[in-house]
Amino acid sequence: MTDQQPPPIEMHDCYPGGNSTYICFAPGCKREQYAELDAAIRTRFPHFEQGGFIEPPVSDKAVLRLQMAGGEFCGNAARSFGALIADAAMSQKVLSPQIRQELVASTGEGAVSFPIEISGTEELLTVHCHRQNGGYWVETEVPVPGRLAPRQHQIVDEADGLTFTVLHVALPGIDHLLINERDFAFPGNTGNIERLLRTAERLLALSASPAIGLIWYSHQPDNGAVINPVVYVRSTNSLVNETACGSGSIALHLAVSTESSLDVMQPSGSTLKTTIQRSKDGSIDQVLLSGEVRLQGCQSFPADQLAREPVGEAQKN
Questions:
Q1: Residue 249 and residue 16: Cα distance in Å, rounded?
Q2: How far apart are the first and last CA of the chain?
Q3: Location of each CATH 3.10.310.10 domain in the chain
Q4: Which of 67, 139, 149, 260 is 20 to 30 A removed from 276 (C-alpha atoms)?
Q5: 132-183 pLDDT, tens per residue?
């Protein structure tokens, strides 16, 4: 008797305002295998900056669960996941046999709303999607403690002794360190960035954090903000200069702006909108992240094919 082949992997290529994200349906793959599978996917498809895996939800009130490869929280991956669920619902496709389709509610022509689960938080997050320009405009809740306050720290660059300020915003599943470009310019060199990461990690006692974002920014009250994010994910040991960062945009809004909404320009040239709703006492009621998501297609293949060499630029999509 021959061994039965495992079901093929389905990998969805998503573009949430910049940072290319894969969402994978890998039946039979266990969570402890995600880091290895993530490395194989990103070796073969090097344009991906991050990725997550579709799982059955824990709660009977969620449509599906997205488990990031490193167990972190990711706002743009949550929005990508939302776009896939919306697209499946509107096209009557089967994204996963575990999907609770009855929880996807129509909110208008080409628009739906539904709750999801995602790694890095135990909260259910509501996602709103509507079709727009061949893609989807997706808004998702972001889990933020009601009394979150940024903390200011002084960091000394060990290379040249330069002291600069970081604003530490601890979000569920990821710690962001915000650096004003005016005070300390983006180094560009990966070695210099990693040195700064390790210095900050040690001084701020972040060795247990599942993910750390170094977010260089500039902010003008009348002209929005611009970020240049680098994100480290511990379990996958990846350090990526991302072309967009949703949770980093939220962290920046929380740290530097008192306005209810902020447009944050990403390195990709796309803009993400962050919205923070507060109570009269100043506590945070709700945080939202919104922007465009384009779905680039889906590939299905046996898992053992992922071990092959990286594909060329023309083959990525």
A1: 13
A2: 38
A3: 9-144+294-315
A4: 67
A5: 988 999 999 998 887 888 999 998 877 777 888 999 999 988 999 999 999 8
Query: Which is more confidently placed, 3 or 153?
Result: 153
CB 115 within 8 Å of CB 122: no
Q: Give the DSSP H/E element, type plus range, for residue 246.
A: helix 246-256
Helix then strand then coil, in percent of the chain rounded to 5, is 20, 40, 40
Q: How far apart are CA 116 and CA 171, in angstroms?
A: 18
Q: Tell which residue, 311, 306, 295, has the closest CA to residue 85.
A: 295
d(CA 88, CA 146): 34
Record the tokens describing residue 227, joined without a space.
């970020």
Neighbours of 76 (CB within 10 A): 32
β-pair type (50-55, 21-25): parallel
Residue 60: is its pLDDT beyond 90?
A: yes
**pLDDT above 60 for 104:** yes
Q: What is the DSSP string of 49-85?
A: -EEEEEE--SSTT-S-EEEETTS---HHHHHHHHHHH
13-39 pLDDT per residue, tens: 999 988 899 999 998 888 998 988 899
CATH topology of domain 9-144+294-315: Diaminopimelate Epimerase; Chain A, domain 1 (3.10.310)
pLDDT at 189: 85
Residue range 151-288 forms a domain whose CATH class is alpha beta
